[in-house]
Amino acid sequence: MRIGDININIKMGDITEEKVDAIVNAANNTLLGGGGVDGAIHKKGGPAILEQCKKHSGCPTGEAKITTAGNLPCKYVIHTVGPMYGRSDSMEEVLLYNAYTNSLKLAAEYNLKSISFPSISTGAYGYPIDEAVEVVKRAIEDFSRNESTIREINLILFSNYNFKIYSDYFE
Ligand code: ADP
Fold first, then answer.
1. Ligand 1 centroid to residue 85 C-alpha, Å
2. Are 143 and 106 in contact (CB under 8 A)?
3. Is 58 in contact with 31 (CB distance < 8 Å)?
4. Which pLDDT tens digit goes with each residue over 102-130?
5. Per-residue model confidence as pLDDT tens digits over 41-99
6. Which of 24, 131, 148, 152 could form a cystine bridge with 108, CB 3.0-4.6 A?
7. Which residue in the list 38, 89, 130, 168 is annotated as catalytic?
8. Whole-prediction pTM value?
9. Annotation says 5 is catalytic
10. For 9-170, which CATH superfamily applies?
């Protein structure tokens, strides 16, 4: 589907295999690695990513930082931190929106065209997928209203259940 000038692809898969300008990592505030998608990215991308992460000295929730992609087939990794669900005084929605928006803005600052996102916060951080997908779509719609280099956004889901929720919502 299309939103403004941007092609949106909803796919099942492993984000570490994406051959795009940037993949987004659902990191934690330390940027020093963790489980889930974060663990997979560092494991496959190798130590160059962690080395550059250390120089950022962490990342506040909702913000985004960029590093090399190391051995991954993409060009950059954009590390963002989504909110833990139920821990942020009802600020979750804004923080998740910011995580997507700031990742897209950072990609555009680097003149990137294609970017792939995992479903941020919906694993260990407990954000319900059906609530998260509304925030994702709204963030992309709002971002698409401004001129940018971004032409392709891939939303990569790791389970059939999440894939179906995203597919149904975006249709
Ligand atoms: P968070 O802490 O932000 O919730 P998680 O990594 O625990 O991050 O989970 C975020 C989402 O990423 C979950 O839906 C999880 O199933 C998914 N995920 C885990 N590994 C991968 C991967 N290699 N590629 C794409 N998505 C993944």
1. 15
2. no
3. yes
4. 999 999 999 999 999 999 999 999 999 99
5. 999 999 999 999 999 999 999 999 999 999 999 999 999 999 999 877 789 999 999 99
6. 148
7. 38
8. 0.97
9. no
10. Leucine Aminopeptidase, subunit E, domain 1 (3.40.220.10)
pLDDT of residue 28: 97
Burial category of 160 from C-beta neighbours within 10 Å (exposed 0-12, middle 13-18, buried 19 and up) = exposed
CB 24 within 8 A of CB 103: yes
Checking if the pLDDT of 134 tops 90, the result is yes
Q: How far apart are CA 170 and CA 153, in angstroms?
A: 13
Mutate to test the pocket of ligand 1, among 135, 156, 158, 161 (most ligand atoms within 8 A of CB): 158
Q: How far apart are CA 121 and CA 99, in angstroms?
A: 10
Considering only CA atoms, which of 89, 171, 166, 163 is closest in space to residue 135? 166
Please tell me the distance from the alpha carbon of residue 145 to that of residue 29, in angstroms, as a whole number. Answer: 29
